[in-house]
């Protein structure tokens, strides 16, 4: 019997990691563990296996189906506020320039320039494309006569997770789908 999972190399069989409440630890980036880490967690009884790949690994005395979805046995409380990183900043702004809406040549901009006392913080840094950033220069949006689509805020982890759902990864194993988008509104 042919099944695509049987031909997969074990290294291309990551396990989707769910919290103890069966929600993903993270949507973007998607919470995945390499198969070796997932198997080790199984043997240490730190996770429950929810679904398997058809792919097996073998030792001299045993064979084991690789887990495709695992759930932690202990709930991990997510941080309320995410780290201030370039990636999280772009995710907060949905990978769009706050001035023109472009998705190309993204960088970040200090809304109040550092030369005018602006700080490097969630509340003063926004995603901007290179042309808009160059046009704005060392001025405020008002001084540059540029409209800012949304004022920068410090997002919560929940807000970033919600934004992350809009950017699914390139590959989703069939066994993951029920756990990734369970809160999507159903079609009538």
Describe this structure in words.
The protein has 188 residues and is an alpha+beta fold. It contains 6 helices and 6 strands, in the order αββαββαββααα. It has helices at residues 4-7, 35-43, 86-92, 130-136, 157-164, 177-180; strands at residues 15-18, 32-33, 47-58, 63-72, 106-110, 125-129. The strands form 2 sheets. A 4-stranded mixed β-sheet has the order 2-1-4-3. A hairpin with a 4-residue loop joins strand 3 and strand 4. It starts with a helix and ends in an 8-residue tail after the last helix. The model has no long low-confidence stretch (mean pLDDT 88).
Task: Give the helices and strands as they follow along the chain.
Answer: HEEHEEHEEHHH
List the uncertain runs: none
Shape: elongated
How far apart are the termini?
Answer: 37 Å
Largest sheet: 4 strands, mixed
Strand order, largest beta sheet: 2-1-4-3
Content-based structural category = alpha+beta
Helical region count?
6
Q: In percent terms, what proportion of residues is strand?
A: 15-25%
Q: What is the strand tally? A: 6
Averaging pLDDT over every residue, what do you get? 88
**Fraction of helical residues:** 10-25%
What's the Cα radius of gyration? 21 Å
Would you kindly provide a brief summary of this structure?
Pfam families: HNH_5. The protein is built from 6 helices and 6 strands; from the N terminus they run αββαββαββααα.
